[in-house]
């Protein structure tokens, strides 16, 4: 018996490095951030003033609002595109489907700084397309500005679509051909099949994908940083400039914003789970 | 029926074009000589790549990124392999806890992680903010979900617990059993998650920029710094960088294909399992609630 006990202590010691890393770089920083958000700017007085500052300041509130809107809009667009595109995927032979998934997989790695750069040389002030459209005299694009809200949405949608396609595509495989046959045998039309069977079956994965995309966009930093720098008011850019810039260093306020950003994500996950439970109950 | 297939062809065609145009555009830009008023470049040149490969700063940045990746992925393998093995064999009641700790980074965006890391490590007993060491720690956590999934799945696939039991019955010590039986069997499974982690860290910018910035210039920071200078040179960097990523993910895909029967199935499974894991995590939370 004693031998086994001794062995267990030895084994526990082997777990130590993992525990140290998790405490030092995962749990520790989270706790430090939450704690820090309840201090005043001097770092000594305990207060909830940082949160009050955020909710009273037009600047920070609009940053939060911008982030939420950009995340929601880009997630909605990407999920819609992915639902349609993934369905179209299933109409091709498995070899082509495979190729298409490869392309989605490939392009899902094209994000952050390189992606922003690519958009800058294509659609920026002196971008290839910008100049081309100007020469062709297409007024439609004359007042398009990449370094703005529309530009950000465009780039966000680009890195969200491949991910959305890869997440939604598998759930189409769950819709059996026999279901369609059964539905039409029982007198259902194509539309009623999709409304009563197809979409309800897809719904959990659509909602799940939506949450992932939303969270993905809320936390996105590199893309926005490269594209608009600090000229555009986004939550992630605000946090970065509060904790790591040379000019406006306010780590406590940054921590409070960080806590809010993390809470938004937890809220999104919670909402997702609620939806999932409701959907599943309906299915049963 | 035929017209609907045309519709699907158009949809897929537009999507593929939309996804590939930025890549193709950047590639053309990187080999273009003069290109300002025509649809395709007027002439092509390799001079941007030559210039890039003669740039000391590029090599240095590349080396720094490699150093960070080798250190953090290496540490992760060395630490996570025994940890997951020991927990699943001897302390299976803690598996949930391990899973929660390993999957948590998935829900924390780097920007949030950076806030606490800066607070914790600028000053205090371990002032490593601004040095590569803090990045190695942060990256260890960043790749944790992938490494955890990869290692745990491979341990499950080869029935590690039974293998060790069998080896012990035959007189081997635990360490021997792990080293000579389990390890050789899971090495290829770990390779996939290792390569994925490498690709992930290659494109990591947020943590690098916030925690260390210009003091330890990684490839991504170098790239961000070059954004405003010569466009051609920067596109050469982007293409070089992206080729490395493609090579890595391509190998990952190939390895996954080889293991399973049909490529489609394997890809589907990979994505599905990724998806399921996200939900499994939630299910465990749900069960805990009830």
Automatic annotation (TrEMBL), chain A:
Classification via InterPro entries: MetI-like, MetI-like_sf
Locations listed in the record: Cell membrane
Start and end residues of each ABC transmembrane type-1 domain: 64-272
Main location: membrane
Membrane topology: Multi-pass membrane protein
Source domain of life: Bacteria
Residues that span the membrane, as ranges: 9-32, 68-89, 110-134, 146-172, 193-215, 253-271
Keyword Cell membrane: yes
Keywords: Cell membrane, Membrane, Transmembrane, Transmembrane helix, Transport
Family classification: Belongs to the binding-protein-dependent transport system permease family. CysTW subfamily.
Name by which UniProt lists this protein: ABC transporter permease subunit
Annotated source species: Cytobacillus citreus
Phylogenetic placement of the source organism: Bacteria, Bacillati, Bacillota, Bacilli, Bacillales
UniProtKB/TrEMBL annotation, chain B:
Membrane topology: Multi-pass membrane protein
Main subcellular location: membrane
Coiled-coil regions listed: none
Pfam families listed in its UniProt record: BPD_transp_1 (PF00528)
Annotated TM spans: 12-32, 66-91, 128-148, 186-212, 232-253
Keywords: Cell inner membrane, Cell membrane, Membrane, Transmembrane, Transmembrane helix, Transport
Cell compartment(s), UniProt: Cell inner membrane; Cell membrane
Residues making up the signal peptide according to the UniProt record: none
UniProt xrefs under Gene3D superfamilies: MetI-like
Occurrences of domain ABC transmembrane type-1 (ranges): 62-257
Recorded superkingdom: Bacteria
Entry's family note: Belongs to the binding-protein-dependent transport system permease family.
Protein name: ABC transporter permease subunit
Source organism per UniProt: Cytobacillus citreus
